[in-house]
Each structure stands twice: as structure tokens, then as C-alpha cells.
Amino acid sequence: MTTYDSDNDTPQRAPGPLNGIRVLDISTVYAAPITAMLLGDYGADVLKIEHPRGDPARTHGHSKDGHGLWWKVIARNKRAVTLNLSHPAGREILEQLAADADVLIENFRPGVMEKWGLGPDRLHQVSPALVMLRVTGFGQSGPYATRRAFGTLAEAMTGFAHQTGQPDGPPTLPPFGLADGVAGLAGGSAMWWAINFAGRSM
What we know:
By secondary structure, this protein is α/β, with parallel strands linked by helices. It has helices at residues 31-41, 69-74, 88-98, 112-115, 120-126, 151-157, 160-163, 178-197; strands at residues 2-4, 11-13, 22-25, 45-50, 63-64, 67-68, 78-82, 103-106, 131-134. It has one domain (16-138, 145-150, 180-197): Crotonobetainyl-coa:carnitine coa-transferase, domain 1 (Rossmann fold, 3-Layer(aba) Sandwich). The protein is globular and about 55 Å long.
């Protein structure tokens, strides 16, 4: 929610239930960034960390005056910086940021964070109470863990696409990011309860 300072009409964010919670969003595209967006909606201080190339979502979908409209939605209530996490200096800066953070959200393929030396073991040395959300299509372990996954794949594998469309037509995907949105909502709920469980003030 946005309010305005009566003296100078400067936009001011009204405090929300997650006011004071610091979130590092190092995820890309949709599902995990939607979780970070929701935490920001509830007052968390969200720092969006992008590769210097920028999040691909910046160029997805319709745009106006050169600005992606979908990006405007999922990047709301976030501050943005760039870091190259494949470079030692970038990893060092992320560790410094994690030391003061409450939540870190990532959606790299399983093993990528560990390859960079930024897995849970290392980050919990830096910040023992850090809550990490790791969003993947098939989890961190198991026979499908290393497979790439997108929302359309989830919509197909769950049978959702088979249940929609015309009776005599082919399986039909939804015209929007349904699976990503549902995953983002689930992630937001999980983080809400994890923050409580970790004894954070809400």
C-alpha cells in the first residue's frame, strides 16, 4: 500500500505485517520472483539481484515505451542491483548481503548454488537463521531433479491441460502463467510460516 507525505506529496510505503524482514531475491522469470513480489506487497524489504544481463522477464510479453509490463508487475516493491554470482567478487558480495538478510529466494537448477559455494551449508555459516526458498520443478533430489521445468510442463504433467479446452480438441494450456502463479502463492505462504517458525517479528 502506498501513502503520501502530507508535506511534500512524496510516496511513502505504509508498513505491512512483514515490515523489517529483509529478502534477497536471486531468482529469475516468474514463479520464485512472484513469491518475492508477494513478500514485498506485505512490507518486506526485497532486494532483487540480477545477472548483469538482466532478468529475462524484463523483455517478456507486452511493453510500453520500451518497458516490459509484466516486469513492472513482478518487480514491484523491489530494489534492484546486479551481481555476477559466477565471479568470486559477486559471491563475496552476496555473502555480505546474506549476513543481514532474513530470507533468500532462488530457483537455479539443483547443484548450481553448491557449485558456486553458496549452498545452504555455506550460507547458514554466514547467517544461521537465514530462511531459504529453493524453487525447482522436481525438487532438490530424486530421479527428475536435474530436469528443466517450466509452468507449461507442470500444467501438462498434472493433467490440467487434459482437463481443459474443447471435448473433441487437444489438451489446452491456460492463457497465462497459472502454474507459476500457484507456485509463487505457495512459496509466499511457506515463507510466511517459516518466518514465524524462525521467531521473526511480523
